[in-house]
Design goal:
The chain is built from 7 helices and 8 strands, in the order βββββαααβββαααα. It is of the alpha+beta class. The protein has 2 domains: about 80 residues, Nucleic acid-binding proteins (OB fold (Dihydrolipoamide Acetyltransferase, E2P)); about 130 residues, Up-down Bundle (de novo design (two linked rop proteins)). A hairpin with a 4-residue loop joins strand 6 and strand 7. The protein is elongated and about 65 Å long. Bound molecules: zinc ion. Zinc ion binds next to strand 7.
Length: about 250
């Protein structure tokens, strides 16, 4: 089959050659793929609007030897509203970058597709706390890709009462009594630990009403950033550094 008809999210859209765009797409049917959109940077191009970042569309793609070529495309939903505010834009890009870097090429994952589609949608609607949406997105994506942090109880004694400390190498938490003398580990207070566990199980609807203290927000953001770097070897995210810079200081 030389043609692929698929629903896809535009994870990135970069200038390519004189008039083309090079897209990273998350396809419902084929997972992460790379496609060229010929002539998409021409003023009169029919493809121009459909190959923008933050688009969910239906694509007809021609399968070449090294990459796909967009033959036709129709917008299903556009999240262009994210481009209006620098914070929303950086957050929307961060979600796309996380998927782009963590998902192996060519492996369909409808749950990840739905997670990203919902996250862009919630972000554009402006419902709820955006920092908590980011933590929710990170934790749920990690779970879907098999990187679930084990934080139900202390990995050494089984204690379920915090405060806890995250042991990066063990991939789990340990309690105050079992904490080694060197006292390394990322601090997870009782409140932050409860927030983390909550974000791993609640629905997107429940997320809209969830609130947290600034200190818990910061602890959790530090934890997820370290976890992602340690376990997934993705390197730094420019969009995340930007969001950290504009985050209120605790
Ligand atoms: Zn313990």
């Amino acid at each position: 089959m030389r043609y692929l008809q698929t629903r896809a999210l535009v994870l990135s859209s970069r200038p390519f050659g004189e008039t083309d765009r090079l897209l990273s797409l998350l396809s419902w049917d084929e997972g992460k793929i790379v496609a060229k959109a010929p002539g998409a940077r021409r003023v009169k191009s029919k493809l121009a609007a459909t190959v923008e970042l933050f688009t969910c569309g239906n694509f007809l793609l021609y399968r070449g030897r090294t990459l796909f070529t967009v033959s036709q495309a129709q917008v299903e939903t556009s999240f262009r509203g994210l481009m209006l505010h620098v914070d929303d834009y950086a957050r929307g890009v961060y979600f796309a970058e996380l998927v782009e870097r963590l998902l192996p090429e060519g492996e369909p994952n409808p749950a990840v597709f739905q997670l990203l589609l919902n996250a862009w949608s919630i972000l554009q609607q402006g419902k709820g706390d955006k920092e908590l949406l980011s933590r929710f997105f990170e934790l749920r994506l990690l779970m879907l890709l098999g990187f679930r942090p084990h934080c139900d109880a202390c990995v050494f004694c089984g204690n379920r009462e915090g405060p806890f400390f995250w042991n990066m190498a063990a991939g789990g938490i340990y309690c105050e009594n079992c904490r080694p003398a060197q006292r390394q580990g990322i601090s997870l207070s009782r409140g932050t630990h409860a927030l983390l566990k909550n974000l791993q199980r609640i629905s997107e609807r429940e997320l809209a009403t969830l609130r947290a203290r600034q200190t818990q927000q910061k602890e959790l953001a530090d934890f997820t950033a370290c976890f992602i770097q340690y376990w997934t070897d993705t390197g730094p995210f420019k969009s995340l550094s930007f969001l950290q810079e504009i985050r209120p200081q605790v």
